[in-house]
Design brief:
39% of the residues lie in helices and 14% in strands. With 328 residues, it is α/β, with parallel strands linked by helices. An 8-stranded parallel sheet has the order 9-8-7-6-5-4-3-10, with helices on one face. Strands 1-2 form a two-stranded antiparallel ribbon. β7, α5 and β8 form a beta-alpha-beta unit. The N and C termini lie far apart (41 Å). It holds the Pfam family Aldo_ket_red.
């Protein structure tokens, strides 16, 4: 396993991040335990979840599964850099809409949801507490006050963001600096060969402020996986099938490129991200131990300049960062 500092922090994390969104939904608790056991054996020490994950099992189920895994394996918790998120509602909406104060990042909501996550995860701290989305109705002084209290209590170590625009990152960290607070150290964004928009502004902003980029959906919802016979996979949907049909020639060329070099298409998609500036590690979401092991094999792929150029030609990016990408 390869390790890198999480953004500008001194904490080392694995370059493969174990995403757990399938746990309790498409992956049983027994299989989730096996995946986490094997991840630890492979050196994966960075686990990512969210308060609202659980799918068919119900909101919070994923955190509960991780908590039971910790409880069944005394001493393991200190080997894991544990990340979770706040913003999603934890109760179903009423016919009139969301329950009052059910979603968002007010100080009241952040404190309540932190208590809930700590209880479900059966832990005394959250190593990386992330705003799952920008909350445009809450001021940064209120957001940072809430996080400062959690950090002072020892219940949160670092803070991060997810799905933020570049200006959100800049605003957040400029205000944090004036409060003598560390601010955001990571940003989770949609990033893969198919969707490269964050190269325009988010990646430059993250690099400037010392945030590690954690790409989610690194295989574009399964488009870059080379196809799957797993009927329970997220890629086995009509939407993904339609997208594959729209890109049939492009994906065929991509899969041929990978196999000519002896690589699995899914591993190549992850390897490409590992070669991109500012990327800490892609967040993978394995349903099985075999999928986890395949993902980790991406660390063995070394892409040459010619390989990277060929992939750019297959999946053109926005042309670099803004404004050069479109202004001249």
């Amino acid at each position: 396993m390869d390790y890198v500092h999480l953004g500008r922090t001194g904490t080392s994390v694995s370059r493969i991040v174990l995403g757990t969104m399938n746990f309790g939904d498409r992956t049983s608790e027994e299989d989730a335990f096996a995946i986490m056991d094997r991840a630890l054996e492979l050196g994966v020490n960075f686990f990512d979840t969210a308060n609202g994950y659980g799918g068919a099992g119900g909101r919070g189920t994923t955190e509960e599964i991780i908590g039971r895994w910790f409880a069944a394996r005394p001493g393991v918790r200190d080997d894991i850099v544990l990340a979770t998120k706040v913003h999603s509602p934890m109760v179903d909406p009423t016919p009139d809409g969301d329950v009052v104060n059910a979603r968002g990042a007010s100080a009241w909501q952040v404190r309540r949801e932190a208590i809930g996550s700590l209880r479900r995860l059966q832990t005394d701290r959250i190593d990386l507490y992330q705003f799952h989305h920008i909350d445009r109705h809450i001021s940064w002084p209120e957001l940072w006050q809430a996080m400062e209290v959690l950090v002072a209590r020892g219940e949160v170590v670092y803070t991060g963001s997810s799905n933020f625009a570049a200006w959100n990152i800049a605003q957040a960290n400029e205000i944090a600096k004036h409060r003598n607070f560390l601010g955001l150290v990571s940003e989770q964004s949609l990033y893969n060969l198919v969707q490269r928009s964050i190269e325009l502004e988010v990646i430059p902003a993250a690099q400037n402020y010392g945030l590690g980029i954690l790409p989610w959906s690194p295989l574009a919802g399964g488009l870059l996986s080379g196809g799957s016979s797993d009927a329970n996979a997220r890629s086995a949907t009509a939407r993904v099938a339609s997208q594959r049909e729209e890109r049939v020639d492009q994906l065929a060329a991509y899969e041929r490129f990978a196999r000519e070099r002896g690589w699995a298409p899914s591993a190549l998609g992850l390897a490409w991200l590992l070669h991109q500036p500012g990327v800490t590690g892609p967040i993978i979401g394995p349903r099985t131990v075999e999928q986890l092991e395949s993902a980790v094999s991406a660390l063995d792929i070394r892409l040459s300049d010619d390989d990277l150029t060929a992939l750019d030609e297959l999946f053109p990016g926005p042309g670099g960062q803004a404004p050069e990408a479109y202004a001249w």
